[in-house]
Amino acid sequence: MSVVARKFAASPARIPSTTWQTIVNIIAAESDEVEKDLNDIAGIAASLIADETPLNDAITIVGNGPRLRVYCLYGDDAIGDEANEASLSWKPFEGEWKIYFPVHQADYDWVTKALKEKNSRFKTYKTGDQIEEEKSEENRSDGLTQLTINTNKLK
Q1: Which of 62, 87, 100, 120 lies closest to 8 in space, CA to CA?
Q2: Region labeled Disordered — which residues (predicted)?
Q3: What are the Cα distances from residue 66, in Å, to 48, 98, 102?
């Protein structure tokens, strides 16, 4: 699985709602339906951006092509040149997809419920944790057996 990251300037360069709109304009550029779905949760997403949850824990899109991790930059980083808001070379929302939002423990229940009511593809995970996709991949790799071939015995 390949991973691509984008870093968007947030506060103080932009207010949270404008940051979310900028993210949506880039990641859903070629899908009006997905753009509408993401705009429907603008208030919730802006709240998470205001709480700085995507500073260290990415908003993660699992779908077509590479996994996309979206981070936000804050403070001096937001007004510097560290942002990478380049357009995508693929369509992450083509076919089956899910988008995972990092949420602080205190807000986890209400955010999870609110997002689930909007669309079953909207998922949450607690800041500091992994998304469920990564946990299941880790578990699958734990059960692997290593094979070693002694080529000297083949001669």
Answers
A1: 87
A2: 131-155
A3: 24, 13, 19
Tell how many helices (H) and how many strands (E) occur in the chain: 6, 5
**Omega into 102 within 30° of 0, i.e. cis?**
no
Residue 141 confidence (pLDDT):
47
| Residue 90 DSSP SS3 | coil
pLDDT at 146 over 60: no
Cβ pair 54, 16 in contact under 8 A: no
Instruction: Report d(CA 78, CA 55) in Å as an integer.
Output: 11
Question: Distance (Å, rounded) from C-alpha 128 to C-alpha 107?
Answer: 14
State the Rg of the chain over Cα.
Answer: 18
> Would you kindly state where each structural domain of the chain is located, as residue ranges?
3-154
Q: How far is CA 44 from the centre of its chain?
A: 15
pTM for the full predicted model: 0.85
